[in-house]
Amino acid sequence: MQQNKSVTEFILLGLTKSPTRQKMVFVIFFIFYTGTVVGNLLIILTIKFSRSLGSPMYFFLFYLSLTDGCFSTSIAPRLMVDALSAKKVISYNECMTQVFALHFFGCMEIFVLIFMAVDRYVAICKPLRYPIIMRRQVCITLIVFAWIGSFIHSIAQIALALKLPFCGPNLIDHYCCDLQPLLKLACMDTHVINLMLVSNSGALCSISFLFLIISYLVILHSLRNHSAEGRKKALSTCTSHIIVVVISFGPCIFIYTRPPVTFPMDKMVTVFYTIGTPFLNPLIYTLRNAEMKNAIRKLWSINITSAYL
């Protein structure tokens, strides 16, 4: 990644300066990251090899888990290494790569959550046309569109970052690279770039969140015409999706839809967004989904039994 700035590296200040607390940060995030990788990998393998999870909902859940694992991997390993390092140095190119990965997988998650909402809407509100509308080819096309859209969004973020001249301070008061902390170090008036950031990432988060909430309100309203058993199953699924939407979009909207002002809780909100959400998503989709739990028990009990035969 080409760059012509006088600053060739940045120093991340991290979450804390205390050596004792840094060790605690390492232990805590090692547990969270391990749980994220194991949980999402369990969902990916279960959907991949279970014949009972072939519906579009699980097709999209497969990619949500894949995205969560990659999203967390773009942040957590670096955070854990820095927690044990005296000097948290990151090169300019590594910083730009992290900005790209953060926005690419974050945007990918937004697209997948939207597709999951569309899938539930069609399944509940237009059940007779569901097999035609949500056929396999359509689902694959939507995922390809999500990859392309996420790439375009990330390229736009990198284009903004590459415009920033860094000619002096290189201390980033954060634990990862993102446009907001980088704007504070730029040797220029960043008002216009911040407006572009809000109109890009901020608008993407806000409009998507509004669309998802309206979609699920329509879905919940339509459940009145279903049987008690069907209503209970659909409500359980939609509740899981709504929980994920809220915990995913809340921090995103807080971070990307405001002026370049620093708040004391910014780092913790970002921690929840980048580390907590990918960890919680597998728990929500497995603990609240009887079909997923049964598939996991059946698939892995068969594998364990086969291993001993």
Task: Give an overview of the whole structure.
By secondary structure, the chain is mainly α. It has one domain: Rhopdopsin 7-helix transmembrane proteins (Up-down Bundle). Helices cover 74% and strands 3% of the residues. A 3-stranded mixed β-sheet has the order 2-1-3. α4 runs antiparallel to α6 (136-162) and α9 (228-256) runs antiparallel to α10 (266-287). The longest helix is centred in the middle third of the chain and has 34 residues, at 92-125.
N-C termini distance: 52 Å
Helix content: over 70%
Number of extended strands: 3
Looking at the structure, what is the overall shape?
Answer: globular
What's the CATH H-level homologous superfamily? Rhodopsin 7-helix transmembrane proteins
In sequence order, what are the helices and strands, one letter per element? EHHHEHHHEHHHHH
The computed structural class is: mainly alpha
Number of helices, where a helix is a run of at least 4 consecutive DSSP H or I residues: 11
Domain module count: 1
What's the CATH first level? Mainly Alpha
Integer-rounded radius of gyration: 21 Å
Low-confidence stretches: none
Overview features:
3-stranded mixed β-sheet, globular, Rhopdopsin 7-helix transmembrane proteins, 3% strand, mainly alpha
Brief synopsis:
This protein is an all-alpha fold and 309 residues long. It has helices at 19-49, 56-73, 76-83, 92-125, 130-133, 136-162, 179-183, 191-222, 228-256, 266-287, 290-308; strands spanning 9-12, 89-91, 171-172.
